[in-house]
């Protein structure tokens, strides 16, 4: 799979849903501890760290955008 922002391009895909699930789990953890940093790591190069980081960032941005729109 090539590097792409699949959460943005195809928000209804199973992969996008997986990133939203990960985002929700991180938010649940964050509700108690006020975490501000997430580290994505792997044992070998080219295992998808950038792909995961970028798509997780899009998933967080989408929920933030919805919250901003709902406040207006």
Distance between the termini: 38 Å
Helix segment count?
A: 3
Assembly classification: single chain
What is the number of strand segments?
Answer: 0
For the biggest sheet, the summary is: none
- Radius of gyration (CA) equals 13 Å
Question: Helicity level, as a percent range?
Answer: 55-70%
Poorly predicted sequence stretches spanning 5 or more consecutive residues: none
Mean pLDDT: 86
Range of strand content: under 5%
Give the structural class.
Answer: mainly alpha
- N-to-C SSE series? HHH
Label the overall shape: globular
Report a brief summary of the structure:
This protein is an all-alpha fold and 72 residues long.
Task: Outline the structure in words.
- About 65% of the residues lie in helices and about 0% in strands.
- With about 70 residues, the protein is an all-alpha fold.
- Helix 2 (about 15-35) packs across helix 3.
- The chain starts with 5 loop residues before the first helix and ends with a helix.
Question: Topology of this protein?
Answer:
Elements lengths: L5 H4 L4 H20 L15 H23 L1
Helix pairs in contact: 2-3
List key phrases describing it.
65% helix; mainly alpha; 0% strand
């Amino acid at each position: 799979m090539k590097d792409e922002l699949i959460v943005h391009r195809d928000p209804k895909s199973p992969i996008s849903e997986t990133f939203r699930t990960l985002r929700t789990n991180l938010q649940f953890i964050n509700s108690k501890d006020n975490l501000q940093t997430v580290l994505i790591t792997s044992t070998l190069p080219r295992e998808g760290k950038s792909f995961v980081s970028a798509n997780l960032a899009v998933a967080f941005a989408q929920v933030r955008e919805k919250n901003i729109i709902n406040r207006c």
